Amino acid sequence: QLVESGGGLVQAGGSLRLSCTGSGRIFSNYAMGWFRQGPGLDREFIACISRSGSSTAYRDSVKGRFTISRDDAKNTVYLQMNSLKPEDTAVYHCAGRFFNPSSLPVDYNYWGRGTQVTVSS
């Protein structure tokens, strides 16, 4: 089970840190990803991180603004979001898959229910 938190309403240029906490499995065995889905839009890849945390990947539009990290001692993966823009408004979901990270939603086995991020202009 994955549970996201940390979403909210923020002005453009502001920051939020999302958290995703897992339970029931050995968290360190799973690569983790963050995805988002805006109203009427498909779910899109934001960032992913390997099991060791040594490898990360990002969507081009968030590079330099968002940072993914993990703390396996806390069974938690984070998404630090800076310089937020109105187009970042969406429901953000974390996801986990065994072994390697991926940018494809279909590759992930476990999903959280999401946390709403709203960026006002």
Number of helices: 0
Q: For the report, how would you describe the main beta sheet?
A: 7 strands, mixed
Number of strands: 11
**What amount of the residues lies in strands?**
over 45%
Report the principal-axis shape: globular
Rg, nearest Å: 13 Å
SSE pattern: EEEEEEEEEEE
Mean pLDDT: 95
List the uncertain runs: none
Termini separation comes to: 34 Å
Specify the helix fraction band: under 10%
Q: What structural category do the secondary elements indicate? A: mainly beta
Write the SSE topology.
Layout: E1 2-5, E2 8-11, E3 16-22, E4 30-37, E5 44-49, E6 56-58, E7 66-71, E8 76-81, E9 90-98, E10 110-111, E11 115-120
Parallel strand pairs: 2-11
Antiparallel strand pairs: 1-3, 3-8, 4-5, 4-9, 5-6, 7-8, 9-10, 9-11
Model description:
This protein is mainly β and 121 residues long. The protein has strands spanning 2-5, 8-11, 16-22, 30-37, 44-49, 56-58, 66-71, 76-81, 90-98, 110-111, 115-120. β5 (44-49) and β6 (56-58) form a beta hairpin. It starts with a strand and ends with a strand.
Keywords, please?
mainly beta; single chain; four-stranded antiparallel beta sheet
Compact overview of the structure:
This protein is an all-beta fold and 121 residues long. Helices cover 0% and strands 50% of the residues. A hairpin with a 6-residue loop joins strand 5 and strand 6 (56-58).
